[in-house]
Design brief:
170 residues, alpha/beta, TIM Barrel, seven-stranded mixed beta sheet, 35% helix, lysozyme activity, Lysozyme, Glyco_hydro_fam25_subgr, hydrolase
Length: 170
């Protein structure tokens, strides 16, 4: 399988110059859709528009703070409402790796993942899981590894230089 360069972005990255991102040859962008409190990420709309205008394939991720099935269903429903039938090239990724989820049982975590997935798939989107490499190795239930998984694994010498070059000066 060929490696495809891509980026994930959220409001923490500031305003993105998507034309510059496209010129770097980025094969995809995964956008954070909502943040803590289930509030839409303030940069989601301009980031989605920038990807579409610059022909960058796009997906989204939801960083979850849920610790119950009811909470994760609510998170999934807010994602679907926010997407409002927009086209995605990549999945809706459930980012399930917050400290509040560290001590959840594998059984509960699997039920939460399945509940989120069911809502996403029913709405016509592809589903995947996003987490750090360590979480994938030690926390993610084995049953969840059957789904597409995108793992964050940053190089030891990552200086953030590329990220800074992609920001639009204030």
């Amino acid at each position: 399988m060929a490696e495809i360069k891509g980026i994930d972005v959220s409001r923490w990255n500031g305003n993105i110059d998507w034309k510059t991102v496209a010129s770097y040859g980025m094969g995809f962008a995964i956008l954070r859709i909502t943040e803590k409190g289930n509030i839409v990420d303030s940069t989601f709309e301009p980031n989605y528009k920038g990807c579409i205008e610059n022909k960058i394939p796009v997906g989204v991720y939801k960083y979850s703070y849920a610790t119950t099935i009811a909470q994760i269903k609510n998170e999934a429903n807010v994602v679907i409402k926010t997407l409002n039938k927009r086209k995605l090239d990549y999945p809706v990724f459930l980012d399930i790796e917050d400290k509040c989820q560290e001590n959840l049982s594998d059984s509960l975590m699997m039920k939460m993942i399945e509940a989120f997935r069911a809502i996403i798939v029913k709405a016509g989107y592809k589903f995947g899981i996003y987490c750090g490499y360590s979480w994938y190795q030690y926390q993610l239930p084995e049953g969840a590894k059957k789904y597409d998984v995108w793992t964050a694994r940053y190089p030891n010498n990552d200086t953030g230089e590329l990220q800074e070059r992609l920001r639009v000066p204030a």
